[in-house]
Amino acid sequence: MLAYAPLHHLLLARRPGPLVMTSANRASAPQIFRDDDARPGLEGIVDAILGHTRPIARRLEDAVVEVSASRPRVLRRGRGQAPRPLDWPADFADAPPVLALGGDLKSAACLSHGRKALLTHHLGDLDTPAVEEEFSATLADYAAVFAHTPTAVAVDLHPGYRATQFGTAFAAAHGLPLIGVQHHHAHIAATLAEAGWRREAGPVVGIALDGLGLGDDGTLWGAEILICDYVASRRMARLKPIPLAGGDAASREPWRVLLAHLDAALGPQGWSPADLPPGVFAAKPLATVRAMIAKGLNAPLASSAGRLFDAMAALLSLAPDTLSFEGEAALALAACADAATEEDGAQAYPFALSQTGDLLDLDPTPLWRAVLADRAAAVPAPVCAARFHAGVAQAFADGAA
After folding, report:
1. In the chain, what are the domains?
2. Whole-angstrom Cα distance, residue 191 to residue 207?
3. Phi, psi of 134 (to 5 degrees)
4. Tell me: the pLDDT tens digits for 381-391?
5. Of the four listed, 63, 132, 183, 340, which is most buried by Cβ atoms within 10 Å?
6. pLDDT tens digit string along 61-95?
């Protein structure tokens, strides 16, 4: 860490090497910031607690920033980044005050009015009562400090999201209109605002790649090409859906989505676990999972980019049987690709493009055939990972063209 307080300078001066810092909290729990809570809350996982006579007024996580193309890019707004308003484009000057609540993972809220959008700091995943309480308290705190009285509430379409349920109840309690926004439309609209795209400039073709979000048609989306502006969107292309055997379990166990992808592409008889590195499918209940998919039992279809990356990581033996945190498999796949040269990724794995009604399907069947052929020819994993990334990028660029 770099020192940003006098106490840090004193600590660093007594240590010859770098210090690595992490938040004072257990997994899925809010950050501990009071001395009286630290003793029982951190018992057994820390050796000592350094207190202070000046209490901390507000819980605030560290910010996460990456450098991309020689420019800093904020991935998570925290200490040093929040609260700090963002500027909307000039033709948002007459926009009314709105409270906008997103999804449940890595939650944050937005208090918007006119050309200013005030994002809260990172609040964490809304999967425990403690985080939900922190979410509610933070919204009340921000509304009071910044004198924000919303005239409408915007929420994700997914009725099961705790943020959506909170926003629905808040709107009803205050007699405010409730605006449902499709998950991936929100991703692209946020990108437009960040880029300064004016409302009057008209629609764009946007690509949204993530894990999962509820689509306009009630199915699970996660790899979409939309034609949209700030108000409306229309889906024009998608990654061809595959079944998520086990539902949420498929998000934690990459081998499940690898099985679904290979079966969808090649058929159960068109490949063998022996074609893959030892251990990928060792001691896995393949017959049970295939039966779930065949009978449609807890195996919803989804066009998920996140699960595609999980499957590729599993095939290259880069992912554990059960993930310990979100994005673990994709991070391992990206790190593997970083070990390849630019020339290694020049031979991008292909996709097939086909029309299904009004939708263009991006079908990864040719990709899986090419990956298996490369692995059979002992092509190194970094080369395969680089070709995979290049192939996904090229397929969505072609789909948006």
Report:
1. 81-181 (3.30.420.360), 242-400 (3.30.420.40)
2. 10
3. -65, -40
4. 999 999 999 99
5. 183
6. 888 899 988 999 888 888 888 888 999 999 999 99
